[in-house]
Amino acid sequence: MRSALLIAIIALSVVSCSRFSKVQKSTDYDYKLRMAEKYYVAKKYNYAQQLYEELFPLMKGQPQFEDLFYKYAYCSYNLHDWLQAENLFKQFVEVFPNSPKAEEMEFMRAYTYYRQSPKPALDQTNTQKTIGLMQTFINTHPNSPKNKEASDIMDKCRAKLEEKQSSSAALYYNMGHFRAAAIAYTSLMNDFPDSEKSDTYKLQIIKSYYSFAVNSIEEKKNTRFEQVITECNDFMDRFPESNLKKEVESYETLSKNNLKVNNNEQITKTN
């Protein structure tokens, strides 16, 4: 049964290829355009793309060219050829800046970068390009019905960038590079000031500086424990309602106790 089905599929594929080959060999360009439209509607984008590509230079300046260009770009998009699709969406706007479809093409250009945005652990160049192009789209088309979607995509991209940066800071901390971790978490807070995790990041700054102080040479411990206390006070000012206050208070107490011990030891040594 399966063999028969496989044979039938192969046979249909051969017939389809044979028909397409005949269309390709035709010198009737109107016929080719009609067939490209049929393939496009049938979602046979590979066939449609090949015909549009052949007709592309021949149809320039013709009334059908704008629609051909539009569908040619979407063929690349639907075939997941993001680089080609992005280029064609961009070119469409350049060639037809006053087209009713130009706004859609601008959005789709930005969207192709979003489709290329990888997991947070990987390089986020395309994520950053998505944010830039989506913001440009919103600024250029303030009344577009696509703006809500553009804003949502930007939020998702920022969340991905935040996750990547947070993971990098956590890696510094887990590897025992406490000063680097504190700096990384501070940058994270500055880059994402509206993050829901801001109090968590601030706590990580405190923990990082505390561990840095504990592991410092005696001559520098006091200065570094004072920095922890400063960070704790800043936490209380910024996040008075945070449920992390008790943990922060414990680090403040520990730092003050360490300062007292160190000061007493210095007095004893002096005497």
From TrEMBL:
Keywords assigned: Cell outer membrane, Membrane, Signal
One Pfam family of this chain: YfiO
Domain named Outer membrane lipoprotein BamD-like: residues: 36-218
InterPro entries, sorted: BamD (IPR017689), BamD-like (IPR039565), TPR-like_helical_dom_sf (IPR011990)
UniProt keyword Chaperone present: no
PROSITE patterns: PROKAR_LIPOPROTEIN
Protein name, as recorded: Outer membrane lipoprotein BamD-like domain-containing protein
Organism: Niastella populi
